[in-house]
Every structure is written in structure tokens, then in C-alpha cells.
Amino acid sequence: MGFDQTAVALLTLPGNVAYLPQQPSLKRSMLEIPGVEAASLTNEGPAGGIYWHEQSFFFDRSPVAQDWRAEVQIADPDFVPAMRIPLIAGALPDSNEHEVLVNETLVKRLGLHAPQDIVGKTIALNEDTDYFRVTGVVQDYHRESLRAKIIPVVIKPEGGGYNYLTLRIRPDRLQSTMAQVQKVFTQYCPDILFDCQW
């Protein structure tokens, strides 16, 4: 698939706006659990789903959109290392909401010779006035089945809150760690049902 699916849990976060400011501190608390190896705030798992959005794509401040569209995956900068997706050029974004990663297929669709050629360039989506600086390129990974064609992807942070907390758990501590994950979640969200897929 292009990412490591072993012992990954997808924890549903409350949609109530009152809980949105707590998402970063909840993530930090989860990382303090000994069996949690990595964590990322996302709108969907790496295999995609209803929160993936196909969008128009503008490259290098061109006023004309490309004649193809890109899929946007909303995730914080820790998503790539958490899912062990290889970074093949550039660097991960920092917490800046105006920095993004793209995949190899997007670079090829632009006709660039090497992944490094897009690093530092800007893109825009859906005629937004906001431009995003590309900091790096990730190796292609499958968002659907292995039979499905890999499509251009932009991995972009979200400023307004996320739907899930993706956790990588040590396989030898799975049961005990998930019990701790539930305990920490309940401390932050005492009136919300614990919903975690793994």
C-alpha cells in the first residue's frame, strides 16, 4: 500500500466546536502513553474516504488551473512519519498551515523532471486566494485498492480542527495501550462515546 498498516488505530474526535481547542493537547497526552509510538491529527485514514476532496489545482501562481484535479488529504505534519510513508524530497512542513506535501504522481503530472523540482514552489486549490508552499514530496501510496490507479495527492494541514486522531501502537502492547488510550480520551471528553477503529 505504500504505508505501514500494522497496529494503527483511528480514534474519532468529537465534532462539537467546544472540543476543537483541546485536540493538540489530547494528541500530546496520547504520545505520553508508553505504547503509543506516533500520533497525527487527520480528517481520514491513509486509505482515504469521504473526507478526501478532489480539487482544482493551480501551480506556481498560474492563473490557469491544470487540466486535471488533485485529491486533498487533510492531516497535520506528523501524518507522514506516523504512517511511515517515505519522504523522497524536501522536508516535512512545520505547523504552518500554508505548507503542504505532495506525492510523486503529482510531480509527474506537472511534467517536472525530479521530485526536488517542486520543493519551494507554490500551489493553490479551487481558486483560493491562499497559496501553499510545497516543502516536500512523499512516495506514492495507495488510497484505494492496489488495483486502483494512484492519483495526484496534496497532504494539507487544517486550521479549524480534525475528525480523527491516528495512533501507531506498539504491537506487543496493543491491548494495554488501547485501555490507556480510552482512559486518556475519557478524561478529555467525559461525555463523548469512545469510538476507535484498529
Set down the secondary structure blueprint.
Elements: E1 8-12, H1 23-31, E2 36-42, E3 53-59, E4 69-74, H2 79-83, E5 87-90, E6 99-103, H3 104-109, E7 122-125, E8 132-138, E9 153-156, E10 164-169, H4 174-188, E11 196-197
Parallel strand pairs: 4-9, 6-8
Antiparallel strand pairs: 1-10, 1-11, 2-10, 3-4, 3-7, 5-8, 6-9, 7-8
Structure report:
Helices cover 18% and strands 29% of the residues. It has 198 residues and is of the alpha+beta class.
In short:
The protein has 198 residues and is α+β, with helices and mostly antiparallel strands. It has helices spanning 23-31, 79-83, 104-109, 174-188, and strands at 8-12, 36-42, 53-59, 69-74, 87-90, 99-103, 122-125, 132-138, 153-156, 164-169, 196-197.
Low-confidence stretches: none
Number of strands: 11
Number of helices: 4
- Indicate the structural class: alpha+beta
Rg, alpha carbons? 17 Å
The helix-strand sequence is EHEEEHEEHEEEEHE
Q: Taking strands numbered 1, 2, ... along the chain, how are they ordered across the largest sheet?
A: 3-4-9-6-8-7
Distance between the termini: 17 Å
Strand composition percent: 25-35%
Average of per-residue pLDDT values: 86
Q: Helicity, in percent?
A: 10-25%
* Outline type: elongated
Main sheet: strands, sense, barrel: 6 strands, mixed, barrel
